[in-house]
Write a structure and sequence with these properties.
Elements: E1 5-8, H1 10-37, H2 42-67, H3 75-91, H4 97-119, H5 124-144, H6 146-149, H7 163-166, H8 171-192, H9 196-206, H10 208-214, H11 218-244, H12 254-267, H13 272-288, H14 296-310, H15 314-326, E2 329-332, E3 353-364, E4 367-378, E5 382-386, H16 393-400, E6 408-413, E7 416-417, H17 423-428, E8 431-433, H18 446-454, H19 464-478, H20 494-506, E9 512-516, H21 524-539, E10 543-547, H22 551-557, E11 560-565, E12 568-573, H23 575-579, H24 582-589, H25 591-597
Parallel strand pairs: 1-2, 5-10, 5-11, 8-9, 9-10
Antiparallel strand pairs: 3-4, 3-6, 6-7, 11-12
Helix pairs in contact: 1-8, 2-8, 2-9, 2-11, 2-12, 2-13, 3-4, 3-11, 4-11, 9-10, 9-11, 9-18, 12-13, 12-15, 13-15, 18-19, 18-20, 19-20
């Protein structure tokens, strides 16, 4: 154990989490009691009412932007759907408050889901344009459909809940209900980050391509995130309408969506605490600065700019980073890690095939990157793909893992046709993958990276959350990184990042592991350790297909070699046969190599 670190157990960490939850609940009870039993002025009540209802809606942006990394500039539109459902429901249609609120949440969910399904394949600035358009269209509808929405005049005399004999008709009691709802939503959003869905969202945010081949259905994950964001927007809007008893279209314009976005960015988009902090700050700061009279808006704007420039991860992100620097990193106590199930197996080549590729082709315009390639990989062997730069090796791996679709040919994994399956579906069939250029989830811890791999479709880890943690630790232990489990993955050295990516693939218990130049960038010692690791994995029955330019490494581990050149297979066989093949010598190895081997 090195200086500046502490040893912890899984039970100790769980105890810290439970302590945090208890403190959170105690704080919630105290805050709600304060709002419930303290005589606050109408001015303060309105500020707190706006802050609590806005914060619920902005927590939706924590999910879609902070967790899933998708831009949503229409949160005010979803907010307005909830507000107008409560407003019109309790006045025009005579509904009680709670049914009207449910209608608003459902409408917001439907709108968010439909918008997500139709636009999330675009991503980036195209997604931003679509959400802006939706926001603008809805604002025009609220303003001009006078017969339904009452137009610019807005909706008056919106009703509040009449539960418990009209208890919530009092503004203080209604505020207490909104604050209680905020604490509940905040706890759920915090918990979401620790779930399978939450980890999938963060994987999509950090590296969508790697998330797909690890087993995450990236499109579905983004749509769910967008829908949950809309749900919270509608919920917050419904509570807002009941709190102020009046709404109008100008309260839900595009500028309000920008305000929501600013709130989540200033506080810290990846944390519910930061989201609430940013919301309260942007609502309360102008009020605190009013004593500056004519210049208070300039000071307010300047403060916001300074925060965003010097704290790019938000206030809470800055505080969290500082806390990590001042506190020791948690380490795993020796002896508490169970072996990975893979290590209990003993592999023996039986001649059967795990992968069969027939006449596979992938062209990019006139470039034939993969040209009618046949490939057969035997079970419990290490199969190497070699060839000069540009020969099509990585393109072939991208086709095998589903990143590229072939224009012709057939891929069979374990005697099942997977040619048209998407990357996450192939991962579900037992295909693991690493990349030539490391693709880890950079804003997640090492163990969270590995957990994403362990949660691939079709892979069952017994023991729920605790079992998943043990399984992830076992995968890290086999590559020698268990003691770095709780570190930020970006803090690892280059060689350790290579190992972390392999551990992530191993955690899904793959049938076939595709390794794209795992030795690239490693020093001599690290390459020797990699060779030892691959030999152990082969001994435990894992089938490996490896690309690498280091022929010394390939010769040490490969049972079979296939050589590509200009997208075509030019040789296939045992290392001894291939390395003496004249075509291989001419295309790749050079004459000196032949003399050395003869």
């Amino acid at each position: 154990m090195t200086a500046g670190t502490t040893t912890t157990t899984a039970g100790g960490k769980a105890g810290q989490i439970w302590l945090g939850v208890v403190l959170y609940l105690v704080t919630a009870v105290v805050t709600v009691a304060f709002a419930n039993f303290t005589m606050l002025s109408a001015y303060v009540l309105n500020l707190l009412m706006q802050a609590s209802t806005y914060a619920i809606a902005v927590l939706g942006l924590t999910i879609v932007l902070g967790y899933a990394g998708q831009i949503n500039l229409a949160q005010a539109a979803f907010f307005s759907l909830g507000a107008y459902s409560v407003g019109l429901g309790t006045t025009t249609f005579g509904l009680p408050f709670l049914p009207a609120l449910v209608v608003g949440v459902v409408l917001a969910c439907i709108a968010g889901g439909v918008l997500g399904l139709t636009s999330l394949r675009l991503g980036g600035h195209y997604l931003a344009m679509v959400t802006i358009s939706f926001q603008t269209i809805l604002s025009l509808i609220l303003t001009n459909w006078v017969s339904l929405t009452r137009g610019p005049d807005g909706v008056l005399n919106i009703k509040r809940p009449t539960l418990f004999g009209g208890y919530f008709l009092d503004s203080g009691h209604y505020l207490a209900m909104c604050i209680a709802a905020l604490y509940g939503v905040g706890l759920l959003v915090w918990h979401l980050r620790k779930t399978r869905l939450g980890r999938a969202m963060q994987a999509v945010r950090d590296n969508e391509l790697a998330a797909g081949v690890t087993g995450v259905d990236t499109y579905r994950t983004k749509v769910v995130a967008f829908t949950l964001s809309a749900l919270l927007g509608g919920f917050g809007g419904g509570l807002f309408a009941g709190g102020f008893s009046y709404i109008s279209p100008d309260q839900f314009s595009f500028s309000e969506s920008i305000v929501f976005l600013t709130m989540v960015l200033i506080g810290g988009s990846r944390s519910p605490v930061g989201t609430v902090l940013g919301t309260c700050l942007l609502i309360l700061l102008p009020e605190w600065l009013r004593f500056l009279k004519n210049v208070y808006l300039a000071v307010y704007g300047g403060a916001v700019i300074l925060i965003m420039v010097f704290m790019p991860d938000g206030i809470w992100g800055f505080v969290t980073a500082l806390w990590r620097k001042l506190n020791p990193t948690m380490r795993i106590a020796p002896g508490e890690i169970a072996p990975l199930p893979l290590t209990r197996e003993v592999g023996r080549a039986d001649g059967s095939l795990i992968l069969r590729v027939t006449s596979l082709s992938k062209h990019f315009g006139g470039l034939k990157a993969v040209d009618e390639v046949d490939l057969a990989i035997a079970r419990n062997t290490v199969h190497a793909l070699i060839g000069p730069n540009g020969s099509g090796k990585t393109t072939l791996l991208n086709v095998l893992s589903g990143i590229y679709r072939p224009i012709a040919g057939r891929i069979e994994l374990d005697d099942r046709d997977v040619t048209r399956l998407k990357p996450h579906q192939r991962a579900g069939r037992g295909l693991g993958r690493t990349f030539q250029n490391i693709r880890l989830f950079g804003n997640m811890s090492v163990i969270d990276n590995v957990m994403v791999g362990a949660e691939r479709p079709g892979h069952v880890v017994p023991g729920h959350a605790a079992g998943l943690t043990r399984h992830a630790l076992a995968a890290l232990d086999i590559v020698g990184l268990a003691d770095r489990a709780h570190d930020a993955v970006g803090s690892l050295s280059y060689g350790h990042q290579r190992l972390a990516e392999i551990a992530r693939a191993l955690a899904g218990s793959p049938k076939l592991l595709l390794l794209d130049e795992p030795g690239a960038g490693l020093n001599h010692i690290e390459k020797n350790e990699l060779v030892g690791l691959l030999k152990r994995l082969k001994g435990h029955g894992l089938t490996i297909c490896i690309i690498d330019h280091d022929m010394n490494l390939v010769e040490q581990i490969a049972d079979h070699i296939t050589v590509l050149n200009f997208g075509r297979r030019i040789a296939d066989g045992t290392p001894e046969e291939v390395l003496r093949n004249p075509k291989v010598v001419a295309a790749y190895l050079g004459e000196e190599r032949v003399g050395a081997s003869s």
